[in-house]
Amino acid sequence: xxxxxxxxxxxxxxxxxxxxxxxxxxxxxxxxxxxxxxxxxxxxxxxxxxxxxxxxxxxxxxxxxxxxxxxxxxxxxxxxxxxxxxxxxxxxxxxxxxxxxxxxxxxxxxxxxxxxxxxxxxxxxxxxxxxxxxxxxxxxxxxxxxxxxxxxxxxxxxxxxxxxxxxxxxxxxxxxxxxxxxxxxxxxxxxxxxxxxxxxxxxxxxxxxxxxxxxxxxxxxxxxxxxxxxxxxxxxxxxxxxxxxxxxxxxxxxxxxxxxxxxxxx
Length: 266
Hints:
InterPro entries: KR_dom, NAD(P)-bd_dom_sf, Sc_DH/Rdtase_CS, SDR_fam. Belongs to the short-chain dehydrogenases/reductases (SDR) family. It holds the Pfam family adh_short_C2. This is NAD(P)-dependent dehydrogenase (Short-subunit alcohol dehydrogenase family). With 266 residues, the chain is an alpha/beta fold. The protein has one domain (8-245): NAD(P)-binding Rossmann-like Domain (Rossmann fold, 3-Layer(aba) Sandwich), CATH 3.40.50. It has 9 helices and 7 strands; from the N terminus they run βαβαβαβαβααβαααβ. Strands 3-2-1-4-5-6-7 form a 7-stranded parallel sheet, sandwiched between helices. Helix 1 (17-28) packs across helix 9 and helix 4 packs parallel to helix 6 (154-174).
């Protein structure tokens, strides 16, 4: 308890899923949390929940597709809580699952905006405030899908690859400001998981069995503590890495080829 006492954190997409789980962990560890969320219902619910836990929390409607909205969220954290210590770029806008040849320019543009551009905007806006505090922590999110070239996620894979490059660049250049920048590649039972589990019989069981640890991850219990570690003084000498928090799924990987796609086509 208290690992993040007196720290101010901004978490994008903290209204649900992994972001909400991290927000709960941060609240328990003493951080003030700016909930940068698009959905007004879940954003307000998260704010109320964290406040009931005794944390300082504020929901700010945020659209990561818009630079002005991202920058306004950063400023709101500073205005409301006095500064910014930790930035967590978790939110993104998903696109339709279709093959690479069927992805559109608009899909790629939106995905790149909600991943690379959103992280870029937030990081650059956060920089002067972190420097004013004598340092800071940036946590970005990537995916195992990049490693395996997941089918039907070509735009997502491209965007998350860019996030890795951005993370490493910030780690290299901003270490001189006592700012660390790391990435988490999680798999957990977030909104997408529950949607697929409801739509596809046996999905949850197969997903758990694919991991060496034999279970699927919990946003709060499995992903949140890693985000706490990276945001705390325990990780003061850790920067530029990607942490796979997936129960070992990155070891065997997984076959993402859709069943309807033949092995060979001419």
